[in-house]
Amino acid sequence: MRATRFFISTLKEAPADAEIVSHKLMMRAGMIKRLGSGIYNYMPMGLRIIRKVENIIREEMNRAGAIEMLMPVVQPAELWQETGRWDKMGPELMRVKDRHGRDYIIQPTSEEAITDVVRSEIRSYRQLPINFYHIQTKFRDERRPRFGLMRGREFTMKDAYSFDRNAEGLKQSYQIMYDAYTRIFQRFGLQFRAVAADNGAIGGSGSHEFHVIAETGEDALVYCPTSDYAANMEAAEAVALSATRPAASAALTKTATPGKAKCEDVAELLAIPLQNTVKSIVLTVEGEKEEDKQVWLLLLRGDHELNEVKTSKVAGLANYRFATESEIVEWFGTKPGYLGPINTRKPVNVVADRTVANMADFVCGANEADFHFTGANWGRDLPEPVVADLRNVVDGDPSPDGKGVLAIQRGIEVGHVFQLGTRYSEDMKATFLDENGKPQLLQMGCYGIGVTRILGAAIEQNFDDKGIIWPTAIAPFEVVICPMGMDRSEAVKAETEKLYQAMLDAGIDVILDDRGERPGAMFADWELIGVPHRVVIGDRGLKEGQLEYVGRRDAAATNIPVAGMLAFVQGKLAGA
Amino acid sequence: MRATRFFISTLKEAPADAEIVSHKLMMRAGMIKRLGSGIYNYMPMGLRIIRKVENIIREEMNRAGAIEMLMPVVQPAELWQETGRWDKMGPELMRVKDRHGRDYIIQPTSEEAITDVVRSEIRSYRQLPINFYHIQTKFRDERRPRFGLMRGREFTMKDAYSFDRNAEGLKQSYQIMYDAYTRIFQRFGLQFRAVAADNGAIGGSGSHEFHVIAETGEDALVYCPTSDYAANMEAAEAVALSATRPAASAALTKTATPGKAKCEDVAELLAIPLQNTVKSIVLTVEGEKEEDKQVWLLLLRGDHELNEVKTSKVAGLANYRFATESEIVEWFGTKPGYLGPINTRKPVNVVADRTVANMADFVCGANEADFHFTGANWGRDLPEPVVADLRNVVDGDPSPDGKGVLAIQRGIEVGHVFQLGTRYSEDMKATFLDENGKPQLLQMGCYGIGVTRILGAAIEQNFDDKGIIWPTAIAPFEVVICPMGMDRSEAVKAETEKLYQAMLDAGIDVILDDRGERPGAMFADWELIGVPHRVVIGDRGLKEGQLEYVGRRDAAATNIPVAGMLAFVQGKLAGA
What positions does the domain Aminoacyl-transfer RNA synthetases class-II family profile occupy (chains A, B) (predicted)? Predict the structure, then answer.
């Protein structure tokens, strides 16, 4: 590609509404252009990257036996009513009426559409397993679109859907997709991590997220550096921090803690470690009638945080909400800050986090303003609690597989694989005939990659103060040739055209910057755009038979003899 | 590709709602699957064809210097309000509100979006000319979606937009696109014709349609076999059928024609040629006030048809409508069937078609029920009329370029190139600075190809009673290998795998039918799907060292020695 036949548009400053680095850099590099809130034009420079991402995904999906098709952007509401998602999904689901007043949605995903295809196309177990995918425009009406392509409204997603005869087959299809995703992210040249994710009502270990590692990531990833344990924060298991409970050694004592409503303040006042305190979290579960209302008390160590997903999995807490202050006063006899499991005004269900259940001589609220109990002990001062994993993992926790301690890093979710089971096939009556001619529900899996989000995530991981640093596989161009004074020097012009043609012939995705810009502006453009390999051709070097090579991460240029440059660049590309 | 790794789904019968052959065959061949009214899943077999069509378009657009980008499916209403299309376009424009109640549209085309990009990106004449295109999902809420991909609601279109400094530049950009379109349709391997089209308010010859020739086409194309004149029916110029007007030879006579309200019936009653009769068409043009209302009388030869587009171009008729019966009675004094230009009750504006203006001794209504005038003559019996080209061309008319006679064939519109001028840049204030630093309006052209419609049009042109006959360039596969008894015969299996691998190595897009179907069912599937080249491998042939080749249009198979088959097929592909 010659730059004068392409469209290059860079900005010195990012627009004011660009908050994060990837958004700023993509705007400055002319890769995207805002059309509306959360809606972007993919400019020529950005589209090239999207196409490279798509092609890698496509090649690996095909290799894994998935079959490409294309489902519509606009889909009839009836299908979404069959599965209940028409009602369950909130305003994030973009709804539209046609000229006859019929309801449609702009697809955020295609579980319903593919299940509709499959229920009429798949009749026999002989046709299974099968996996269909498409790469298509999606729309989610985010309440607050931001961060450019990271949380836009219109975006491109690859979504695949597998169908199997039974749970065992689903597991195999799932593993094939897991492996394909691993290859895809490896080929992108990005640092990534697959983590186990919560999979809601389905249960089991049937869901993983793929994250691009980046300090700016929204999600906390938990992993064990000395084993293969990895999960997102919602799903990471927190074990008890002592394996057994020490014997009680202190007496239960009501202690004045005036104005000390937080564990940190109580610990400071009493000059004890925060780890000896227990905090109280009060939840409400509504019943059919007012008198069926239940109040629950969850106990966590003072330095731990509640994990709301784990909380919803405690038996009886599926539909919990946080209690109101008036409920707390009614059940505990005092306001928040001095609550505890001993001497509540009305009976509450107590659940202790695993770590709390193995504590002795702990400090908790006394259900009286300005007072705490010290020396509280299970069994002696209050009944043995229900025990559950309620808290977020923290750095340094033992790994649940017993093979080390956990670490936490930040990530950006770019892929998700999920065993759906019969969630959709049941509602939509998608069955096949088994070997005995009996209808059976299809076992379904779904597998998504946020195509356009990959661009943002890749940049969050790979940038410096000059701009973007693309991994070669998804760079808009692999190599840029920057001639200095091509219009003035015949030698530069001749060598430039020769090298450009040789690179094209070698199948290198090269752009020749023939715009005639000054070297400073030209180099700044390509550093901002992030092309990984640059060759500079100038009269001074040519006199000595040399060209200049600069890798995007290199501190300095390397001189390479003219005749060796092509091979040198090929070596760099092969090593990338 | 192995058939067992792909998805093949054929039907014996087309669904009842499929009316035309391309819709029936695409449904039967498993290329599309209905999701909703005018909304289709592109199944794997169909998507392969779409991708081939897209790739040919992309290659030729790039070669012509156009630059690919991607504009969003969902676009803010504000842009469409700027150009007035928000109000002007009817219910065909799909409108949608987001969670905040803001208005959006699902794009039917992208003139507004690209002009919004260009008005901020293009600042100087140095950046011109430029041409951006995208291949994107479109939506038009057709009142009555039908004919499968031919008149669907969701479809894929390639739309390109050129921007130039002046009208001369626009003409050049337009010609480049016209030439690119010609190459694109040639590469598809389809019989097509480019015809001049009406370009509304712009005037001049700045619009052409590209049609795939097919007997079932909705549009009539007018062309001169002995010159390069070609236009669609709306735009084709109809000349006067006699160059001069004969002298009057008959007297004006009021003649009883009881119950004969049609020219055909009058001609039969009077035993004269239909070509001697004149028919009357009455139009109304509303004024600001009731008394400003004008009634117009258009006169055509009895065997000719009114061309409504030409009518709207007659000075004063831009906003015409057909007159109501009560208006006709008020102005003419009688009901339709006996109307004419002589003795109207109230004054009307008379416009005669070019052919009528050169008629003498003609027959027309007498403005009295059951009476016509015979022997009517211009100048003598009524004033000389305003003359205009009002009629549709008919087969055998003289070509307006004077180089032969016109013929008519049917076509399906699949492409349109259009000189827009400043229609959008004016409304959206899209300017650039010229050499003198003065802002000038951008001159714009737009260029569309209906990607998914190409599939329907190609089939309407190429089918037989067995199914589709794809041109090789856009066939889902170029070649199918059909082994007979691959599971029983080691020899067949070995030769099949060898040939399959050799074809893959040679870059041939081949599918190996390894499904194990009976030969009859297997051949019927591939004839229905329309793969242009078939190789059959069986034990009987192998014993004699022969394989069988069948071209999709061939009446019989050809035996080819095993070792020569690859070269034979390559020869067929090269010749295609």
Answer: 33-471
